[in-house]
Here is the input.
Amino acid sequence: MTEQLSDIIFNRTDVNEFSKVKRKRLRQYHEIIVSLYNNGSLSLSEMSDKLGISVPTITNTANSLLEHNILKKTGTGESNGGRRPEVYGLVENLFYTLNVHFEDSRVRIVLLNSLRKVIESAEMEYNGKNSPSSMIQAIYKQVDQIFKTFKLPFDKVLGISVIMPGLINSEEGKNYTYYLNEDVTQSLEKKFESKFDLPVIIMNDVKSCTIAEFVLGKAKNKLNALVISMNWGIGLGIIMGGKMQWGKNGFSGEFGHIPVQEFGKLCHCGKRGCLETEASGEALVKNVRKELKNGQFSIINMDGKKIEDVNLDSIIDAAKKGDQFAIDCISKVGENLGKGVAVLIQLFNPESIIIHGVFAETKQFITTPMMQSLNTQCMMQLVDQTEFELSDLGADSPVLGGSIAIVDKFFNKTYEL
Here is the structure.
């Protein structure tokens, strides 16, 4: 390989233009980079085990990457009786990913580097009623500003992840819940690709969180795990047989819309009695506001906060301070959640269930009533075999998952050897 190694590794041309030997070596470079991005730092033997490549080949390949300032030595690992092995990681700011996360009331644009560190983060207000075209134009301007501010080499950005709620078909690049209220001639994915000339992935927010848990969090090394994302709504990420399960169109995991109450409350999906109407951030906020209007005493609005301004964060904060009303309301959500989780356990028999999202911050306030409900709703033989955990990845989990997906998409080229 006579060209500069970094040019070869980040070349966006068709790899089949290369010779067979060159393609094989390039694939090894890419596999090492993806493995280090996902794992942080690894010894040569750990790389060999994870990638199924012999230690001599890994050593030669890693030395080339080290020589060309793509890898660096980050320290020494644990010893198994002999000399402590050297550990390798990626060079900081080797490349970047741009991640656009649509939340309930804002859009976050987050730039991550090759060590998964947040380099820049910008926010814009979003209420779901913004015109899709105007929102995208605002995102374009914000992204352009980030590039100008950081004088970022555009060719070092691997791609863009767009993380959203809704029914999303990632292969088509379409969101079937949002961005459909205009005469759209291009998919959302194509719009971003045509603007920035970069690889783009449109991904459901819960799927993105599940990828982050699978690679970095509590679902790591788990073969059968479920990630329940609880924020304003409820979603489900499914890992079975050590693989993410997407369903036919990518719509799997609509856990919040399983029916739990006949003739129940009307859900925004158009059906009645969905789990999301009884066990979600939206349900919690509606219930708390209703009780406060009826004269319920709580520290939630003691500081003069208007009832219509009470939100999920203020309720959870009150519970953490010991407000019994807030605790009781969260417990009711946990009880209703347990009814849905009982169905999941009996369907999937998972080894682990991870509660993700803002409700993970409530800890025992959500898990204790959920477990009490499970004990009456689910077969104990299955409950006893399931581990229940709270995610610790925090608010950046969706952008981490999106970034992991972009890195995988960029380096997972077609190698016809």
Residues 238 and 244 are 6 Å apart (CA to CA).
